[in-house]
């Protein structure tokens, strides 16, 4: 007997969905017994499971076969909006300018560099980004296309060059499981000098002399918990353990300071963190804690050359920037245990959330959120200030930290701004401590990715230098409109919505609509120009992003009001946004498609249960739809750390009942649901494939979409429920860009067909 029942009539096999056998287990918690018929699908080593997943793919392919032409058209449209041969803006690091090049026909880029001498000593080379010809003196240091040859999946987990610029370290994953092999390349000879370090996680940093490389590893629960130092050429078994994080709620990571002298490590849970610093020029150095670990205190550290800048939440929920003398670090060096030991440079104002600080010799750049958008605030050294905005900061403190804070003239801080309604600004590639320029990226739903620079020492009254506007072929922003709208949630909270549409599309109540959402982990869904969305816009679809609670769009309080025992706000916000767009005439009530991935996939499952009548179609990507089962099992990857996001249902009956009230697989109803496409990958370590596999099986069984289905061939339902799985991929899906375009085109074809928006608008 196999794990998937198939009909006796071979001609009907393609029109009957796979039906997994029921092998019930009972889950008992807090006096509640739950029967789980499909948990056996968890074991990907079981041939019956693979047979079932293969049958799911075959069924999905059959159902979507009539969409072949539409899928092909959308794939070509995505290609038509992509400059396939392209080159990034060169950025300076050490003695070289570094570039990323893509070529037409290649799935993966090439990484190159050119020495910063002669004509390029002070300014980057001018690039013809339509040509793949190398400049005189330019060398390819890593060819990802060549490395990926013969691999079904390929991903770079990181890369870095040592201070002497003669060694390159990079990490490669060929399964999608986010477990990497470390490779060291001699850039003088081109030889691989070390490839013996395996099973590493994220983060790479060279020692000052380039003889050692620092990396991290995961434990069996896929928690990044150790930092190691490897001597290049030596066996991995001899690597030195620098730090180990034993608390299962914490994950550890690290970075190299901008001046290259210091390793900065951080262990963080969802509510608490601890940071360490360690000089990179001493192979025997031990990491020193900056401020210890105090429950509820979150902080991150930026090495500023001779002192520390610290972003922390001890003063305000919007976070602050503080200064600290390098010789003042220690386990009680924090504002909770030792008030006044950190001198505030800048406090977030109401409606702001400070995320990070980057330190330079002449200024600091504060990455933050303001008015619901990503922003950058420049704070000059006191002697550099020249006109700006009043800002909170510079409160008194004892000792050296106070005088350090006085170096930064926070009262004359100024913001980088372009004034667009949906414009967001993020720092990119500012690698030199001595640089006076600030490079940043600007984008919106109609603004292509724009790389620009300003002079941080010149004050706010200056025009930025535009280095590159990403070319989006066959796109004219004048043919579209973008807006910021505000829906009202059930509890009266105003929920921002970013919306874009063709100029000729009006809020007349007849438009097909597409609503995207995420709403977890304080991660924002910021507007950007998405080439694949143009295929929807050009078919008359109104595209919107619901910036719901649980995300990070509107600050820490916004996040706190969409997590733990307030998580249901995330779901009701999304439904309220959909209804608002109907009420305002932007969406037709029967032509709404919704999409979300990962925790956004949980959102999709929850709103399908909560308001199935509101949505015609849903795409749930790598969906976290069996949330309660996962969070109840501390042996599964990442579960323990998630308890500070969702609550601990294992120990707390209130959390258990609350999560059971929204977990998608637990709350399916016997009514008609939207058409649903669930997509995932076999090797996804963040959300296991078993979650959508179980969810889809139960949806088909319990909703009315497939009610009365005979055991013989039957017409495909108007609202099918499909499950598509990549056999060699991870959380991000397929890896090559052309394969990703095809994958995306299939998803959009499914949604567009359901909301009756398959035809391109005709020109007047």
UniProtKB/TrEMBL annotation:
Gene Ontology BP term (one): proteolysis
A Pfam family assignment: Peptidase_S9_N
The enzyme's E.C. designation: 3.4.21.83
Keyword Hydrolase: yes
Ranges of compositional bias, category Polar residues: 1-12
Amino acid composition bias (Basic and acidic residues), ranges on this chain: 383-398
Domain (Peptidase S9 prolyl oligopeptidase catalytic): residue spans on this chain: 535-756
SUPFAM superfamilies: alpha/beta-Hydrolases (SSF53474), Peptidase/esterase 'gauge' domain (SSF50993)
Keywords: Hydrolase, Protease, Serine protease
Annotated GO MF terms: serine-type endopeptidase activity
KW Protease (keyword) present: yes
Domain Peptidase S9A N-terminal residues, every copy: 17-460
Region Disordered: start-end pairs: 1-27, 381-402
Name this protein carries in UniProt: Oligopeptidase B
């Amino acid at each position: 007997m196999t794990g998937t029942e198939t009909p006796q009539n071979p001609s009907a096999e393609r029109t009957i969905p796979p039906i997994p056998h029921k092998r019930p287990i009972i889950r008992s918690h807090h006096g509640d017994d739950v029967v789980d018929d499909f948990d056996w699908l968890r074991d990907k080593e079981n041939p019956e499971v693979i047979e079932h997943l293969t049958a799911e793919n075959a069924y999905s392919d059959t159902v979507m076969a009539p969409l072949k032409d539409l899928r092909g058209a959308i794939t070509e449209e995505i290609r038509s909006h992509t400059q396939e041969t392209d080159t990034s803006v060169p950025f300076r690091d050490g003695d070289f300018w570094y570039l990323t090049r893509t070529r037409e026909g290649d799935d993966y880029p090439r990484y190159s560099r050119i020495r910063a001498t002669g004509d390029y000593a002070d300014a980057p080379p001018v690039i013809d980004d339509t040509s793949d010809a190398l400049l005189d003196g330019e060398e390819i240091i890593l060819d990802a296309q060549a490395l990926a040859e013969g691999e079904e999946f390929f991903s770079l987990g990181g890369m870095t060059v040592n201070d002497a610029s003669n060694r390159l370290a990079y990490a490669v994953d060929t399964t999608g499981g986010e477990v990497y092999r470390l490779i060291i390349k001699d850039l003088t000879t081109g030889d691989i000098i070390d490839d013996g370090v395996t099973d590493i996680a994220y983060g790479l940093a060279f020692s000052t002399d380039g003889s050692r490389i620092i990396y991290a590893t995961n434990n069996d629960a896929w928690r990044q918990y150790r930092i190691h130092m490897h001597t290049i050429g030596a066996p991995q078994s001899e690597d030195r353990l620098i730090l180990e994080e034993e608390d299962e709620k914490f994950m550890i990571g690290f970075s190299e300071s901008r001046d290259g002298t210091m390793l900065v490590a951080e262990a963080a849970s969802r509510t608490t963190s601890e940071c360490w610093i360690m000089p990179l020029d001493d192979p025997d150095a031990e990491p020193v804690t900056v401020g210890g670990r105090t429950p509820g205190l979150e902080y991150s550290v930026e090495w500023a050359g001779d002192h520390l800048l610290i972003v922390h939440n001890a003063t305000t929920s919007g976070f602050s920037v503080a200064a600290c003398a390098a010789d003042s670090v220690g386990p009680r060096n924090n504002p909770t245990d030792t008030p006044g030991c950190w001198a505030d440079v800048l406090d977030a104002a109401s409606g702001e959330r400070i995320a990070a600080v980057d330190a330079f010799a002449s200024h600091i750049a504060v990455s933050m959120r303001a008015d619901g958008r990503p922003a950058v605030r420049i704070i000059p050294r006191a002697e550099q200030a020249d006109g700006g905005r009043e800002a909170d900061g510079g409160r008194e403190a004892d000792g050296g930290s106070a005088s350090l804070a006085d170096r930064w003239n926070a009262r004359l801080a100024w913001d980088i701004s372009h004034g667009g309604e949906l414009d967001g600004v993020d720092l990119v590639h500012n690698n030199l401590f001595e640089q006076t320029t600030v490079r940043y990226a600007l984008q919106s739903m109609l603004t292509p990715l724009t790389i620009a620079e300003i002079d941080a020492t010149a004050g706010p009254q200056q025009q930025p230098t535009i280095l590159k506007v990403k070319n989006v072929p066959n796109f004219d922003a004048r043919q579209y409109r973008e807006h910021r709208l505000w829906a009202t949630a059930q509890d009266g909270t105003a929920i921002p919505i970013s919306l874009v549409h063709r100029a000729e599309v009006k809020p007349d109540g007849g438009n097909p609509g597409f609503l995207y959402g995420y709403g977890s982990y304080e991660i924002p869904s910021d507007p950007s120009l998405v080439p694949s969305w143009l295929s929807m816009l050009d078919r008359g679809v109104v595209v919107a992003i619901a910036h719901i609670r649980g995300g990070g769009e509107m600050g820490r309080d916004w996040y706190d009001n969409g997590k733990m025992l307030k998580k249901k706000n995330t779901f009701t916000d999304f439904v309220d946004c959909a209804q608002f767009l109907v009420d305002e005439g932007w969406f037709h009530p029967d032509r709404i498609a919704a999409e979300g991935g990962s925790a956004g996939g949980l959102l999709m499952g929850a709103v399908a249960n909560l308001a199935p009548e509101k949505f015609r179609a849903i795409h749930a990507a790598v969906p976290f739809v069996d949330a309660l089962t996962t969070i109840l099992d501390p042996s599964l990857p990442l579960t323990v750390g998630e308890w500070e996001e969702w609550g601990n249902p294992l120990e707390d009956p209130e959390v258990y009942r609350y999560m059971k009230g929204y977990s998608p697989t637990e709350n399916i109803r016997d009514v008609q649901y939207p058409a649903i496409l669930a997509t995932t990958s076999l090797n996804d370590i963040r959300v296991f494939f078993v979650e959508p596999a179980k969810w889809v099986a139960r949806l088909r069984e319990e909703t009315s979409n497939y009610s009365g289905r005979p055991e013989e061939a039957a017409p495909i339902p108007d609202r099918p429920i499909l499950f598509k799985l990549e056999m060699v991929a991870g959380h991000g899906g397929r890896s090559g860009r052309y394969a990703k375009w095809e994958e995306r085109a299939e998803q959009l074809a499914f949604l567009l067909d359901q909301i009756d928006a398959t035809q391109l608008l005709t020109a007047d």
